[in-house]
Design a protein that fits this description.
There is one protein chain. By secondary structure, this protein is of the alpha+beta class. It folds into two domains: 2-119, no CATH class; 122-150. It is 15% helix and 33% strand. The chain contains one helix and nine strands; from the N terminus they run βββββββββα. The protein has a four-stranded antiparallel β-sheet, with no helix packed on it. A three-stranded antiparallel β-sheet has the order 7-8-9, with no helix packed on it. Strand 7 (76-81) and strand 8 (84-89) form a beta hairpin. The termini are far apart.
Length: 150
């Protein structure tokens, strides 16, 4: 799960299939935790089908205008900006499991989204704790300095 802002996240839905073993299902969805139904369900919107990515220029050179990302897992999803995601895969399978019966390589996909994401910084808990700790120390220093004046 990757944070977009304080209430929206990107989640990965997938099955365990690959192009060399089954029918793969790999999609990225945006979920909005501020829109949870009475039954506990959350609103989700499909962002990209990783098995059906438009490749009109055949950038991977396989003769098709559709690019597929059929590996078992997705290692990382990073929000680059409001219209761009970076999706990374590294299966570490020595005998294939992706497109062919060969070793799997690390792949990086830079995906342009048709819809804009409402991107805002989401502070890391450690960063917030560090900032609060620093403010407390500054406050103590200022307080101690005020008590020592003649």
């Amino acid at each position: 799960m990757t944070a977009i802002n304080d209430h929206e996240f990107i989640v990965i839905e997938r099955n365990g299939a690959t192009a060399t073993g089954g029918t793969p299902f790999k999609k990225l969805f945006k979920v909005d935790l501020s829109k949870v139904g009475a039954d506990g369900t959350v609103e989700k919107t499909e962002l990209v089908d990783l098995i059906n990515i438009a490749d009109p220029s055949d950038l991977n050179g396989d003769g098709s205008t559709t690019f597929t990302f059929p590996y078992v897992t997705i290692e990382n999803v990073h929000v680059v900006d409001a219209h761009t995601l970076l999706v990374v895969n590294d299966n570490n399978f020595p005998g294939g499991g992706g497109r062919a019966l060969t070793s799997d390589n690390t792949e990086f996909l830079k995906i342009h989204l048709d819809q804009a994401l409402n991107v805002s910084p989401v502070p890391e808990p450690a960063s917030v704790a560090l900032m609060l700790g620093g403010l407390v120390l500054i406050g103590l220093k200022v307080r101690n300095g005020q008590h020592r004046r003649p």
